[in-house]
């Protein structure tokens, strides 16, 4: 079992190591010896990639989209799940089933009607992209919150209301602190998805001036034509793109697993 796990670990880590090694090489060095270690550790290729591909504006735009979309998902999914848990009715159960069933619909089945609809209302842009991410992220996030919020005692909320707390105070000061593990899980899973997504930004933004990181990488790849790839730009740019996600996941992987498990069994 140890040998099997070791092999699986090596297979998993190889693409990251391969990318890291080639991020410090020239185009000729990458083509001649892609599996060799770099002759010297220099950050000039990373600096060149950031300047040539204009990664700083793309990073800022991607951060903005990710933060707003994830915040939108957390607020709406947690409040919807809270109401569905507390309102004991057939309608609340129907709404939960509606949220859950929407996870079964593949994005590819609705992407062209969705893009056409948003274009007709003037939202085929960054704000529209944020709204789309918020809508697509609601189903799974609401499902996770709903499972965890069943364990939150209603007596705590009743006591807060007796003490004069409003609905918003109960939500922000009582409920949300108690579901922190699920909130962390929802934030990380959705942030990784939005940060790494390529298809939706490509359909919405295309070759516009505003490009997310994935779009910037795609058009940088096509810069010298479809048959020539500037590897000395691509490897450093991909390294810059994936490092934040890897660091985030490594530090918060326990909270992700805990939040998903709690939401599934409670």
Automatic annotation (TrEMBL):
Membrane topology: Multi-pass membrane protein
Main subcellular location: membrane
UniProt-listed InterPro entries: MetI-like, MetI-like_sf
Statement: the UniProt record of this protein carries the keyword Cell membrane: yes
Family per record: Belongs to the binding-protein-dependent transport system permease family.
Top-level lineage group: Bacteria
Gene3D superfamilies from the UniProt entry: MetI-like
Sequence ranges assigned to domain ABC transmembrane type-1 in this UniProt record: 59-252
Full protein name: Sugar ABC transporter permease
Annotated PANTHER family: ABC TRANSPORTER PERMEASE PROTEIN MG189-RELATED-RELATED, LACTOSE TRANSPORT SYSTEM PERMEASE PROTEIN LACG
Species per Swiss-Prot/TrEMBL record: Pseudolactococcus chungangensis CAU 28 = DSM 22330
Pfam families in the cross-refs: BPD_transp_1
């Amino acid at each position: 079992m140890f040998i099997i796990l070791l092999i699986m670990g090596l297979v998993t880590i190889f693409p990251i190591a391969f990318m890291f090694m080639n991020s410090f090489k020239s185009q000729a060095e990458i083509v001649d010896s892609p599996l060799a270690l770099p002759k010297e550790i220099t950050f000039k290729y990373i600096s060149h990639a950031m300047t040539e591909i204009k990664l700083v504006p793309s990073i800022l735009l991607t951060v903005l989209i990710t933060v707003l979309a994830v915040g939108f998902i957390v607020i709406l999914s947690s409040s919807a799940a809270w109401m569905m848990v507390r309102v004991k009715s057939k309608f609340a159960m129907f709404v939960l089933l509606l949220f859950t069933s929407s996870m079964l619909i593949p994005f590819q089945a609705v992407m062209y009607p969705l893009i056409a609809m948003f274009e007709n209302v003037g939202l085929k842009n960054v704000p529209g992209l944020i709204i789309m991410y918020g809508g697509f992220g609601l189903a799974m996030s609401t499902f996770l919150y709903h499972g965890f919020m069943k364990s939150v005692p209603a007596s705590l909320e009743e006591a807060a209301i007796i003490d004069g707390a409003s609905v918003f105070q109960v939500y922000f000061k009582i409920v949300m602190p108690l579901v922190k593990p699920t909130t962390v899980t929802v934030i990380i899973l959705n942030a990784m998805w939005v940060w790494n997504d390529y298809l939706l930004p490509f359909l919405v933004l295309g070759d516009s001036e505003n490009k997310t990181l994935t779009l910037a990488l795609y058009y940088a790849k096509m810069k010298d034509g479809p048959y020539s790839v500037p590897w000395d730009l691509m490897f450093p740019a991909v390294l810059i793109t994936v490092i934040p996600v890897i660091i985030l996941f490594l530090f918060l992987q326990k909270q992700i697993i805990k939040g998903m498990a709690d939401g599934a069994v409670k």
